[in-house]
Amino acid sequence: MTETPNTVDEQAAVATIDLDRAVLVLEDGTRYEGRAYGARGRTLGEAVFATGMTGYQETLTDPSYAGQIVLMTAPHIGNTGMNDDDMESARIWVAGFVVRDPSRVVSNFRSQRSLDDDLAAAGIVGISGIDTRAVTRRIRSSGAMRSGVFSGEDAFLSPGEQLDLVREGEQMAGRNLSGAVSTAEPYTLPATAERVGSVAVLDLGVKTSTLGYLADRGFDVHVLPQTVTAEDVLALEPDALFFSNGPGDPSASDRHVELLRSALRAGVPYFGICFGNQLLGRALGFDTYKLPFGHRGINQPVLDRATGRVEITAHNHGFAVAAPTDAISESSVGFGRVEVSHVGLNDDVVEGLNCLDIPAFSVQYHPESAAGPHDANYLFDRFRDMVIAAKQNDRTQEAGE
Fold first, then answer.
1. Which of 56, 57, 232, 330 has its CA 20 to 30 A from that of 88?
2. Which DSSP state fits 327?
3. What is the helix, strand, coil percentage profile of the chain, to 5?
């Protein structure tokens, strides 16, 4: 028999415990009860899981996670706290955060704040103390789905009310989120190595590390809002074009596809990562499709088909390009021959495209390694070399004329 609290202190203690209650609700009606973590309230988004053992700060501040409630499969999160140096953007972008065992103590000399404090300050509603392995298995078997985290007063909504709110949320398929994450104004970062030229970066959710690596390869980096037109880009006379990572469905970005086609027809060398890979695929005439639960983490094996080397890479994508992996194909819109350059070894998903008749290539994963391994960092060198070769070819043609 449960005793009723008699004193004011006892009643306050019960109220505090109740306010710490939280629940994760999935679209299929599955519920996981735990403890509030970060801000209190409600949040809705697509439930996905990330398999990285480290790098939670880079994950949280990656704009590609906008609109998603991210579950960390590693059991202990928050051990190293948060700092200003590892931010991949100016803010936390995840819609919600799910962990099993948040660290009670921050133990790192670089830490400036606790993860819990940053989540609360940013208004990110999270949940802890649930069986994250069980949730991961549910997502793997049923696919990424709409979900919600409810804490504080919202934890006491009826299960039916909570489920209705979840099912009223937006689907990720067909959703365009570029406008929510892109820079509002253009800005430029100067080259930090011997200058190669300039690169126009379409910011679809770009990460800070990516811009740094481009500058380190000798590029003046012109970061542009996602609202720019092809005319705006070509007016800059860039030596190259780069499309960044970003959230949302590539099939909802027709305008960016047309911008890319215009640049490719103008002979501008191109490199794209993640969302930029999907948009190159669409620009070449391929379709894209939604993966059942996507790839998210820093331990994904990818085969570089040119070298036979297996790279361990960082991923964050829920969509992929539908291109033939068994043979070189022809672009249906006139850009020549295309090969699938990289393949994911877990499920044979297209992880890279290489154009054989125009200077353009892309990869689905994140070579900026923030967070993650550095196996694919050489791709920034490959981009630099491609741009140098293209400029030399232009000079040779001009001399011939």
1. 232
2. S
3. 30, 30, 40
**Residue pair 81/113 in contact by the 8 Å Cβ criterion:** yes
Q: What is the pLDDT along the chain (401 residues), one digit of tens a residue?
A: 334 445 555 444 444 456 799 999 999 999 999 999 999 999 999 999 999 888 999 999 999 999 999 999 999 999 999 999 999 999 999 999 999 999 989 999 999 999 999 999 999 999 999 999 999 999 999 999 999 999 999 999 999 999 999 999 999 999 999 999 999 999 999 999 999 999 999 999 999 999 999 999 999 999 999 999 999 999 999 999 999 999 999 999 999 999 999 999 999 999 999 999 999 999 999 999 999 999 999 989 999 999 999 999 999 999 999 999 999 999 999 999 999 999 999 999 999 999 999 999 999 999 988 888 889 999 999 999 999 999 998 888 777 66
Residue 29: DSSP 8-state:
S
Query: Which amino acid does the sequence have at 227?
Result: T
278 is in an annotated binding site: yes
Judge whether 64 is annotated as a binding position: yes
* 275 marked as part of a ligand binding site: yes
In a domain, 97, yes or no: yes
Q: Examine the residue annotation and report whether 170 is marked as an active-site residue of this protein.
A: no
The answer to the question of residue 3 being in a domain is: no
Under 8 Å between Cβ of 173 and 145: no
Q: Is the pTM of this model over 0.90?
A: yes
361 labelled binding-site residue: no
Active site residue 355: no
Residue 380 tokens read as 């920034």
Counts for the chain of helices (H) and strands (E), in that order: 11, 20
Helix axes 378-400, 208-216, angle to 10 degrees: 50
Q: Which of 58, 256, 274, 342 is catalytic?
A: 274
What's the CATH number where 245 sits? 3.40.50.880
376, β-bridge pairs: none
Give the single-character DSSP code of 149: E
351 catalytic? Reply is no
Q: Cα dist. 322→90, 244, 253, 319, 335 in Å? A: 33, 20, 16, 10, 17
| Residue of 222, 317, 342, 366 with catalytic role | 366
CA gap 300, 304 in Å, rounded: 13
Q: Which of 167, 196, 221 is the last residue in one of the domains?
A: 167
- My answer on whether 48 and 158 are in the same domain is yes
Query: Can you list the alpha helix ranges (DSSP code H) found in 241-359?
Result: 254-265, 275-283
